[in-house]
Design a protein that fits this description.
two-stranded antiparallel sheet; 8 helices; 434 Repressor (Amino-terminal Domain); 9% strand; mainly alpha; 2 domains
C-alpha cells in the first residue's frame, strides 16, 4: 500500500483550489502582521482624549465621538483624524486574484490639487 503525504491528502480532499488555499493563507499571514483597530481604540492607544482630538482636528468633541462610532465617513475626515494622531492614512485595495494595491489620490489635499492641476496652471 502506497503512502500519501499530508499535502496530497489535503489537496485531494479540499473543496478549494490550490490557488484559493494559497490566497487564504497569504491573507491570514498578512492579517497577523496588521493590527486592526477602530478609530476610538487607536485614539486610546495613543493616550489622547476626544477633547484633545477635537482641538487638533477643529471638530467638536461630539463630532469626534460620532466619527469614532460610525461605519461610514468621508476619507478626508478620517485622514484629518489620523494625522491629528500623528499618523498617515493609506487605503489598501484587495482583489481575490491580484496582490494588494495602495490607492493613490486620497493623500494631502494640497498635494492632490497640485498633481491634478493642468501644466499651464502649475507654472503661473
Amino acid at each position: 500500500m502506497a503512502t500519501k503525504s499530508w499535502r496530497q491528502i489535503q489537496a485531494e480532499q479540499s473543496k478549494h483550489t490550490r490557488e484559493q488555499r494559497e490566497t487564504t493563507k497569504a491573507r491570514a499571514l498578512r492579517d497577523l502582521e496588521l493590527e486592526r483597530m477602530t478609530l476610538a481604540k487607536l485614539r486610546r492607544a495613543r493616550d489622547l482624549t476626544q477633547t484633545t482630538m477635537a482641538e487638533a482636528t477643529g471638530m467638536a468633541q461630539g463630532d469626534v465621538s460620532r466619527l469614532e462610532h460610525r461605519a461610514d465617513a468621508y476619507v478626508g475626515t478620517v485622514r484629518r483624524f489620523v494625522e491629528a494622531l500623528g499618523g498617515k492614512l493609506s487605503l489598501l485595495v484587495e482583489f481575490p486574484d491580484a496582490p494588494p494595491v495602495e490607492l493613490d489620490g486620497f493623500g494631502d489635499p494640497v498635494e492632490d490639487a497640485a498633481i491634478t492641476k493642468p501644466a499651464s496652471a502649475k507654472h503661473s
